[in-house]
Amino acid sequence: MSITAIIDAAKKDGVVLCFTSSGEIAAKGRKIDIDRWLITFRQNKAELQQLLEPTKVGLSIEDWHEYFNERSKVAQFNGNLSPEETDSVALEWCVEHWLRLHPVNSQSGQCLHCGQSDRLQLPYLASHANQFSNFAWLHNNCAEAWRDQRKSDALSGLKALGLPPNR
Ligand SMILES: [Zn+2]
Fold first, then answer.
1. CA–CA separation, 147 vs 51, rounded Å?
2. Which residue, 4, 45, 47, 12, is CA-closest to 29?
3. 3-state SS of 101-124?
4. I need a labelling partner for 104 at 20 to 30 A (CA). Which of 51, 96, 112, 155 fits?
C-alpha cells in the first residue's frame, strides 16, 4: 500500500493523521480505530513524516489538496467542463504554484540544463513572478528541455502529495 493509500484508508476508518508543532505525527479518531492502524503507521513512520510535514514553504498536504479543490471548483464554475477536465485544469494551476514555490537559481553564466558555459547569451527569468533575483542561465536549445524537466519535477512532487486525487 502506498503512503497516500494508507492515509486515505485510515481516513475512511475515521483516523486522521496530522503533524504536530513539535514535529511528531498525531492520529485523531476513536482509540479502537487508531489502535488498528498503529502498527502500519509505525512501520511507515519516516515516509509519513516526510509526507505530512509542512514543506519548506509552509504548505501541508492538506493545504495542497484544498488548493487543488478550490482550483477545480473555479474551473468548473468558469467553463462547461467534465470532471476530468476540471481536474486537469486544477493540476496545471498546482504545477504553476509548485514551480513558484520551488524557484531555482543558477550560477552566473552556466547553463542550468547542460552545465556548459559556452555560447550563453542571456539569463532567463526562471521563476514565474515577482522574484526577479531568480534567474536561470539557459541555452536557447536547452530551454525547452529544461522547462519540461521542471514540469515533470513539479508533477512528481505533486504526485507524492496525492495530486491529482483518484476520483
Ligand atoms: Zn545548455
1. 25
2. 12
3. HCCCCCCCCCCCCCCCCCCCCCEE
4. 51
The helix (run of H) or strand (run of E) holding residue 89 is helix 83-101
User: pTM higher than 0.85, yes or no?
Assistant: no
Question: Tens of pLDDT along the chain (167 residues)?
Answer: 777 788 889 989 998 887 666 667 788 889 999 999 999 988 988 778 767 765 545 678 888 999 999 999 888 888 788 888 999 999 999 998 888 777 776 667 788 888 888 887 666 655 443 344 456 778 888 888 988 998 998 999 899 889 998 87
User: How many C-beta atoms lie closer than 10 Å to residue 55's C-beta?
Assistant: 15
| Count of Cβ atoms closer than 10 Å to residue 29 Cβ | 17
Distance 110 CA to ligand 1 centre (A): 8
In angstroms, what is the span from residue 67 Cα to ligand 1's centroid?
34
Q: State in Å: Cα 150 to ligand 1 middle.
A: 15
